[in-house]
Amino acid sequence: MILLAAIVAVGTLTAGLVVAVICRRLPSVRLQLAVFGVTVALLPLVAIISTGVVMFDSTHDLTIVLVASAGALAALVGAFVLGRSILEPMLRLRTASADLAAGHLGARADESGPTEVAEVARAFNQMGDRLEELFDARRQLVAWASHDLRTPLASLQAMLEAVEDGLAEPEDYLPAMRDQVTALGALVDDLFELARLDSGALTIELRDAGIEGLVESCLRGVEAEASARQISLETRIDDALPLARCAPEKVERVLSNLVRNALRHTPSDGAVAIVVRPDERELVVEVEDTGEGFAPEALRRMFDRFWRGDRARSADGAGLGLAIARGLVEAQGGRIWAENRQGGGGRVCFTLPAAASRGLVSS
Predict the structure, then answer these.
(1) Tens-place pLDDT, residues 172-219
(2) Domain map of the chain by residue range?
(3) What is the pLDDT of residues 247-271, one digit of tens each?
(4) CA distances from residue 338 to 184, 259, 262 in whole angstroms, order as listed
């Protein structure tokens, strides 16, 4: 009997391993679960029947085989029920992914089901949300770019027609035409720089540089505007400030953009401050103002190109300045974000790596 039990055990184990290998090669989860469920039910049943035929010689003893058969059938039903509970959320996820691939950006998966499947569904839904935001941003980009290009072109066309019809002399419109051409050129330059940042074609040469000189140069450039609006300019720079690993001309452009943006949204008799402090292996540069602060939507979208909000974009700009600032900061290995100050007003911060490494960084 011991030999018989050993033979049955080895045979059952071998059959189970063979079926497991076969299940791994089956093309679908549905088929894998079906074969696995049948195997789980049949192998014990076959083993019991094999030993029962030899061991039991009476009808009473053979009832044990019937009980085992009923247990195997229950296990088979349970396996199919379990497989169905796993397959249904996966099928719903497949349907949602097919809808999203077909262009239905609002398609989302049901997040019910086993934990692992629910986690995949949540990740899929987050991806769908991000894709929807990206497509919205693309539509807004086309709309705002068309608007900002069309306005100066329409002005130029109107002035040219007035000169052609003899309604005005060319010299009357030359300054205004020059301003419109300058605005168009600035917009095209910004779009070109954004395209280079997005494509990775912009290569920035980094070197060790002090931030103090860049801050002073930036403030000199906006001093006249601040004085005319009666806004005070302040600097708070840590005494033990290390050198930054950066492209100084790009940092100055980012600083100038942030300070001018802060000035536009700071009331008269207000203040704008540049704060520079070390933080572990990087430098943190903060531009603070005493304006109205940031709205929640502005905090989330103010660095999106062509987005204009109550606080994040000026009415007379193209809406690309902060998007370029983010690209330039990230190209130098830093981060940029915005937040509201506890005492009122807003703060835009960015980081730069402290002087350590050498080389070129391509965005």
Answers:
(1) 888 888 888 888 887 788 778 777 777 666 778 889 999 999 999 999
(2) 2-107, 138-199, 204-362
(3) 999 999 899 989 998 998 899 889 9
(4) 29, 13, 12
The residue with tokens 């960015």 is: 350
Checking DSSP bridges between strand 282-289 and strand 203-205, what pairing results, if any? unpaired
Task: Supply the DSSP string of 294-339, one letter for each residue.
Answer: --HHHHHHTTSTT---TTTS-TTS-S-HHHHHHHHHHHTT--EEEE
Residue matched to tokens 């000199």: 220
At 188 the three-state DSSP class reads: helix
Q: Say how many Å lie between the first and final Cα of the chain, rounded.
A: 75
3-class secondary structure per residue, 116-165: HHHHHHHHHHHHHHHHHHHHHHHHHHHHHHHHHHHHHHHHHHHHHHHHHC
Distance of CA 238 to the CA centre of its chain: 33
| CATH number of 204-362, picked from 3.30.9.10, 3.30.565.60, 3.30.565.10, 1.10.150.530 | 3.30.565.10
CA–CA distance, 5 with 24 (Å, rounded to integer): 29
Contact 350, 254 (CB under 8 A): yes
* HSE, side-chain direction, 13 A CA sphere, residue 229: 18
Q: Does domain 138-199 have CATH number 3.40.250.10?
A: no
**Residue 8 banded pLDDT, cuts 50, 70, 90:** low
